[in-house]
Design a protein that fits this description.
alpha/beta, 7-stranded mixed barrel, 2 helices
């Protein structure tokens, strides 16, 4: 073996393949809005209906993005709602009387908004919040349709 060639071609191709997979993984998470290098704490939110929430949906607090949905869990045996695992910035302290709301957008995407409570007791990582579905403008429009139909001349 030549001393100028320390690595075989197969090893170079293998290392290049591993590097390419790592870059693809980082790019996929980047486009999902997930920061792989940022530490976050996991919390759980229990909903009866999650609307259009999917993995990597953003979590907002007062319009500022503080996290992402990392997993959605449905208990097929008990059928008692859906638990959403959210990854929240570890700098955020969440009071125990807080809750989360699903906000549906006009084009079908949904986000979660945290509504912080005023209590002194804080949630620990891994604790569960209550969640509610906020239909938003679409729900209000659906409620108005029968009223508008009743006002129209026959």
């Amino acid at each position: 073996m030549d001393k100028g060639k320390m690595f075989s071609k197969e090893l170079k191709v293998g290392l290049l393949g591993i590097l390419a997979l790592l870059i693809i993984y980082l790019l996929i998470n980047f486009f999902k809005g997930i920061d792989v290098f940022k530490d976050g704490e996991k919390y759980y939110v229990k909903f009866n209906n999650i609307g259009e929430i999917v993995n990597a949906s953003p979590v907002f607090l007062n319009g500022y993005k503080v996290g992402n949905v990392s997993n959605i869990i449905y208990d097929f045996k008990r059928r008692e709602g859906v638990v959403v695992e959210i990854d929240i910035d570890n700098r955020l302290d969440i009071p125990a009387d807080s809750h989360a709301e699903v906000n549906n957008k006009m084009l079908g995407s949904s986000t979660i908004s945290l509504k912080l409570g005023t209590g002194k007791t804080l949630l620990a990582a891994g604790d569960t919040l209550n969640g509610y579905l906020n239909g938003g403008a679409m729900e209000e429009a659906a409620e108005m349709i029968p009223k508008v139909a009743a006002m129209m001349p026959k």
